[in-house]
Each structure stands twice: as structure tokens, then as C-alpha cells.
Design goal:
The termini are far apart. The protein has 100 residues and is an alpha+beta fold. The radius of gyration is 22 Å and the shape is elongated. It has three helices and three strands. Helix content is 46%, strand content 16%. A three-stranded antiparallel sheet has the order 1-2-3, covered by helices on one side. The longest helix has 33 residues. The chain folds into two domains: 46 residues; 40 residues, no CATH class.
């Protein structure tokens, strides 16, 4: 059975090195964080592979994106098929987007 850690356990600032339960919790957290990061890397690689098969030939939409770890924000051209940013909006597209 999986052991779940409460938010109060996760948010503790100091770790008592003599407390075996607390040490176990930090090891569990560290292992879980590592597993999640590895999974994210695997998913990003898979996403790149799938997006690379899209030819972005079916047009694009102009969308306002917020900054993220994957993409910079701003008004971008987004592929209609894979919803990936494929460029920045032109001045004309920006003006049309503002007017809409």
C-alpha cells in the first residue's frame, strides 16, 4: 500500500535527522519528485516526437499565450492541429486580433 504524506509533513522547514519517520518522509518526497521529473521529461520527449509529425499545413489561429516553462508568452500563431506555437503574429494579425 502506498504511503501518503500530508501537506504539513511536506511543508516542514527543519528536518530532525534523529527522527527516522521524518527522514523516511523526506526520502519518499525526494524519490517521488525525481520520478515525476523523469516522467515529465519522457512526456516532453514524446510530445516533441508527435509534434514533429505535424506539418502545420492546416492553418493557424492567433492566440495570446502566457509565459510558461515551455513557451514564451505573447501573441502567437498556433497550429490548428497540434496547438503548438509556430510563430509570432504579424503586425496586421496583431491589429486584427485587437479589433476582434
Amino acid at each position: 500500500m502506498q504511503h501518503f504524506i500530508s501537506n504539513t509533513d511536506i511543508n516542514k522547514n527543519d528536518i530532525d535527522l534523529n527522527n527516522q519517520e521524518e527522514l523516511a518522509n523526506t526520502e519518499i518526497i525526494s524519490k517521488k519528485v525525481s520520478e515525476i521529473r523523469n516522467k515529465i521529461q519522457e512526456l516532453l520527449k514524446e510530445l516533441d516526437e508527435v509534434v514533429s509529425t505535424c506539418n502545420h499545413q492546416n492553418g493557424y489561429d492567433i492566440k495570446l499565450m502566457s509565459n510558461s516553462k515551455l513557451y514564451s508568452g505573447g501573441l502567437r500563431r498556433m497550429c490548428k492541429i497540434c496547438n503548438t506555437p509556430i510563430g509570432y503574429a504579424s503586425k496586421e494579425e496583431t491589429n486584427a486580433w485587437k479589433d476582434s
